[in-house]
Amino acid sequence: MTDAAESGLSHALSAPRKRRRRVLPIIELVVLAIGLLLPLVLQDYLTVFGTRVLILCLFALSFDLVWGYSGIMSFGQAVFFGSAGYGVALLARDLGVTSMLVVIPAGVLIGFSIALLIGGFLLLGRNPSSVIFVALGTLTGSYAFDRLARGWYYLGGQNGIPSIPPMHIGSYDLTEGPVFYYVVLAILLLVYLACRFLVRSQFGLALAGLRENEQRIAFFGYKVQHIKAIIFSLGGAIAGLAGSLYAFHEGFVWPNMLGVVMSTQVVLYVLFGGSGTLIGAVIGAVVIEIVSFWLSNSYQEIWPIILGALMLLVILFRPAGLISLILSERERIGNFGRPPRLHDKERDHGSA
Predict the structure, then answer these.
(1) In 3D, which of 279, 276, 269, 266 has the Cα closest to residue 314?
(2) Is the pLDDT of residue 185 over 90?
(3) From CA 243, how far away is CA 262, in angstroms rounded?
(4) DSSP 50-119
(5) What is the pTM assigned to this prediction?
(6) DSSP codes joined into one string, 312-339
(7) Using CA atoms, how far apart are residues 352 and 336, in angstroms rounded to an integer?
(8) What is the rounded distance in angstroms from the CA atom of residue 99 to the CA atom of residue 87?
């Protein structure tokens, strides 16, 4: 075969790969553009709803990082979300601390600390933890935190903590509206980029191997349980960030933020959108919340049944989620490292 023919064949083989690689950035840019333009065309109450959805997207990212990339089924993700919400609510109620520069890091620290404690107990034992053990352990934790909040008078019991004062930056109060929306969008974008960098790093490569074949990764010398504890704690920190934003946006916190229902809800976001993609978690949260909002207004009595049937159909016929309709399996898994350039291939072939 001539050099020209070999070069043409290399171009032909590499072209589809390059086209596939461009799909995910296009999806991300389209979603970002829509997010930037929405407040300009939406009514005020829909902007408030959109802000809530963005915060839930942040929550969904935390679960996708834990489950979609490392295979840890955390049925207690709401523990970190709700604990941070309660923590910043107590700061605002008892100490009068509402500065964004304080309450947001506090929420992240609360989520991270509780995730580290739970992860240390469930993941760092003498024997490797099974998926079922971690799932049931986190589910039990979610139920326990829910019952604790409902029965503790200091936390408001069943009523939670109402009338949280608005968060502020300097002298500006962040109240519901476009400004709060764009602040949350900026935070979501920064967290998304950080997660994208993480999962495409060498640490992300270890996570991918852990998800696909834990025994082989352990055979290569990686401390599997330590890696799981690290990513579990990072997921808790992101969930804590979302919970602190949610508390100030809604103006109150209540035990449901800690409970099984909220934990199941975030699982459905990621299942519906597509796990292990990050953008799938965002799309899943957005679609489910929008469809729920529309159905609850149009079919007030039976909307949960309709929503459940739609989600069941998607999960049944598209197990990889909605994102699999436009994203190939190869691109979902991702490429690690820089692919060899064409002239490098030709030089290696010539030297052979």
Answers:
(1) 269
(2) yes
(3) 11
(4) HHHHHHHHHHHHHHIIIIITT----TTHHHHHHHHHHHHHHIIIII---BHHHHHHHHHHHHHHHHHHHH
(5) 0.85
(6) HHHHHH-TT-GGGGTS-HHHHH---SPP
(7) 26
(8) 14
- Angstrom distance (rounded) from CA 216 to CA 207: 12
Cβ within 8 Å of residue 90, ≥6 positions away: 155, 161
Cα separation, 123 vs 229, whole angstroms = 6
Which whole-number Å values give the CA distances from 221 to 114, 203, 204, 207, 318, in the listed order? 28, 14, 16, 14, 35
Which amino acid is residue 316, in one-letter code? L
Per-residue confidence (pLDDT) for residue 12, from 0 to 100 = 43
- The answer to whether 254 and 141 have CB atoms below 8 angstroms apart is no
Return d(Cα 286, Cα 68) in angstroms, integer: 18
Q: Is 258:246 a contact under the CB 8 Å cutoff?
A: no
Q: What is the pLDDT of residues 216-250, one digit of tens each?
A: 777 777 777 888 888 999 999 999 999 999 999 99
Return the closest-CA partner of residue 275 out of 29, 59, 65, 22: 65
Q: For tokens 């025994």, name the residue.
A: 215
**How far is it, in rounded angstroms, from Cα 141 to Cα 164?**
26
Q: Closest Cα to residue 178, out of 43, 279, 58?
A: 43
Q: Which residue has the higher pLDDT, 275 or 214?
A: 275
H helix runs in 213-320, sequence order = 214-219, 224-250, 260-273, 279-298, 303-317
Cα 322 from chain centroid (whole Å):
16
